[in-house]
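Homework-ish question, so no full write-ups if that breaks the rules, but can someone show me the predicted structure for this set?
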Amino acid sequence: MRIAWFTPFAPKSAIGDFSEAVVAALSAGDDVTIYHPDTPEHGPPRISALPCRTVPADPDGMFLESLAAYDLLVYNLGNYLAYHLPIYQTALRRPGILILHDLVMRGFFSQYFEHRRDATGYASFLARSHGRAAEDYALDLQFGRTLETLDDPERLAHPLFQPALRGALGAIVHSQYARRRIETELALPVRTVDFPAFGPSLAVAPAEKKAPAPGDQVKLLAFGVLNTNKLIRETVQAIAGNDLLRAVCRFDVVGRGTDAFEWDLNQLVAAEGLESVVHLHGWQSDERLREFLTAADIAVNLRNPHLGESSAVLVTTLLAGLPTVVWDHGYYGEFPDDVVIKISAVDQIGPALARLVGDPALRQSYRRTAKRHADEHFDTRRYCDHFRAFAGEILFHKPVLELIDRASAILEELGAIETIDHLEAKISRLIAEITPNPGP
Amino acid sequence: MRVAIVNVQCPFVRGGAEILADSFAQRVRGRGHTVEQIKIPFKWYPVQAIPEHILACKLLDVGVGDPDLVIAFKFPAYLCPFPRKRLWLFHQFRQAYELWGTPFCGLPDTAPMRGIRAMIHAADNRELGSVERLFTNSKIVAQRLRNGNGIEADGVLYPPHDRPELFGPGPFGDYFFYPSRLGSVKRQHVAVEAMAHVRSPFRLVIAGKPDADEYGEQLLATIERLNLGDRVQLLGWITEEEKASWMRGSCGAIYIPYDEDSYGFVTLEAFHSHKPLITFTDSGGTHELVEHGHNGAVVEPTAEALAEAMERIWNDKPRGRELGDAGHATLGQKMISWDTILDRLLD
Amino acid sequence: MRILIASTFTPFASNADLRVADTLRRELIRRGYNCDTALLPFSDRWSDYASQTTALRLIDVTESCGNRIDRLITIRTPAHALRHPHKVAWFLDHNRTYDRLDARPLRNSDALNDRHGRDMMRYSDELYLTECRHIYSGSFALANRLQDFNGIHHDAVLYPPLREDHPFRPGPFGDYFLVAGRTDPNGRANFLSDALAHTDPQVKLVVANRDASDGVPGARTPTVSGRIRYIGATSEEERAEWTAGCCGIIVLVQNLECHGAEIFEAFQSAKPILALGSCNGDASLVGHNENGFICSPTPESLGHAMTAFWQNREAGEALGRAGRACLTRKGIHWDRVIGKLLA
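A: Not a homework solution, just the prediction itself:
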């Protein structure tokens, strides 16, 4: 199969990491070409041995025609306009399989209308997708009557994945939660596939760790973009409120948040006298992150509220064989109880950490089950197998969709009105009569 | 009765199926019925054109003009909806059935093509299963229908010759006759090569135009290479009357195509002329009429086997006449006549 | 060059357009072109228009068995819906449904659907016609309809000539007028016998095509009995004989541009045409006192015209000669038609 794989491919793009891993594996059996944006906002792509081409900033007819050479077009889409706009523009006009990395796409569309200097477009767009309630909120945003924060339930209530998936032949997501949300609102084939093995953990040392010596600090690690829903502040407060944690823990935080957030966090650390416990490292290279992963004893990957995301951080910590504390909802709640440590209230953070910190055997047990689960589920070849099976189903039914599109285009040419001879219903019925049952 | 005959059309191409459909139309008129022929252009490439033409046929109204009966022959024309529809099935879309997965398929084995194949099956299963009457033109086609769609035909209606009255018995001359389009699938080159193994003083006469110029040139080169210039005669294209005359004067006919659907006009021409027919074990449809040792010879597809079969017929002329007469009787036994076809389809 | 002539048709009905399509095919083959026809059934029920047009739109006539089809010539509407990069439409009839739908009173409860249907036909006609490289009309009347209903300007009028080996030829001016087309303008069954009542008693009529009528025509008025001879449907050769021996051709359709082939048969046979109804101005094929005579659509007017021709044979012969000459002058021959269609 000849596949055009559209993806951001900037060096720091997690979706780029994902794509690089999957495409390398797919290329063993298929002919895959990576298409990445070529915009100043995206920046130069990472260096890769994989065949790469660029997606022009405004895909034109000639570019779109050139895609006819491929059997399948795959679009990786996330909530960041700078990395995804040309990909989205192509996907609208040349249907393919869409791998949706972010269920909440509000940021993408809000930036999209800003990019087009359309002051009211976002509000109308929300209304078209989600109705008046969403439009009212958007207007409040637009006129400064409200601010959209990360933990605003509006985001998950009206996520705007529907227009992101418009025209797609099918969608791949990485959590059951995302699949259920999509299936509730769209008649679109959706498949949940576990993440492949990708990211910095691929070169991390194996699960077994030597038993800690007395006096060794128990290392906690949190990393990624420091959004407020990651509960870093709450974790610091939990450490502050627990004597054991204060005494034996070291909490390494890798990544950045807003300046205001970091300032506030630093103030908290100072106020609680935790300067020797909590260490904010900012962004670090992958190599340095691997060192942290290797050294860490426990990972903290709390998200509350979640935004329907599937966490690449969780993939990394589990592949590294780290006991990981998560909030029991969304993607995180889908993992078995012996693979992750689940909490559902802020006041459970301290006790959960203390239990792990105080029990090396417990940590070792989680280490094993986490690593085993990750190796079994986050398997790139397995990902490719699932991907190919789904692609096969989608392509099997593609002729039916193309026939529907063709008939619809003719009806539009005719200006046919349903009441005339109920042609649309008639054609739908006729096409249904020759639509094969699912499965090749 | 108003009879609408619905068929597919490849503009500018006129093959055996089209000739048969026209003959059928003419004979239906001969019975006093009013006939209209509807020929629907069909292009099956690129592959997405297949479902588009399926939908087109399902949307076309073959009931315009209020026919009493619609008769159809081929995919996808037989999908045109009409309550009183009867089929004399010449062809399904073979590439989606028994040719699928073989070197002769000509279609890619990709997921979308498998999807289109499934659409063809769905359309056929639905429509072929609900027609008023369904006959095939050979047992092979009936078997394919059974295997591919689980549908049992109402019977086989063997296509008669277009002009049987031209052909009749005659003396057993000194040549074997092979009249057909020249092409690699018809394997005239094997007949020529067979003559190199023949010791008796008979000749081989081949009539017909080559499908491709290269094949005609190849035949000439083979004749020259094997020094058969005075043993093999190429007539080129001849009229039906000339063909009948040559057949009448032969000692036997040859028809050795590869895996054909039906027995071919050559078989009928030989049997109408009371001549035995030699065919190959892998020729396909000829086996529905030709029975080894009864009305002809069915031999291994080699030049040597063909030569041996010709020698046997040549060296035992009384036996050759017996085989030829039995061949003529076969036509009656299999009810290969237009009357049979019209009775079964129109009544 | 492979040329496909495509037309819609009504099975089991008389399709004059198809005769022209077949003649075009034969004339193209005679000139060495590779030509075939594709005829597709099409109901004139406007409620089925959209589904049938969709079918046409789905059919691919750009190639056949790997060989490119170089030209598509479409005849009867809406064959021009077929897709082809080099498509030429030769309009020999315009969709009468436009008139029917327009004529429905607004208060009719189906009027809204009718309007939608008409709009849909118009919209799609215009869309598909703009895909054509050229659009030709079979007459000025058709060209006017294209302009009025669809806002489309045609490239030229191409009258459909008789086939080149037709049997029509000039002959002596006999004692009868020939009616070879429709015989009942506006459904008046006794129009011809009424007209004969106003003629010289020696004038006779021969009617070649009989419409469905009741009773024996002419029997009502004893003075005309025996002067009208109905010969029923004729072969082309028979009609050519009758035409060659007449003293004039009577054409009864009110709109001359909606005639059949009888006008060209008359021109070929150098016979004058006596026509009813209005001319279409300078676009008319039949010019009053040029190659024919236009009279009011009344039996009296037709009767007087027949008498005038009967009494002045030379005038009739002169008009007949002028009619024959106009075939060349108006380019009513296949060389021109084919030259235009393949341009």
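Now go work out the reasoning yourself. Hint: The domain at 164-333 of chain B is CATH 3.40.50.2000 (Rossmann fold).
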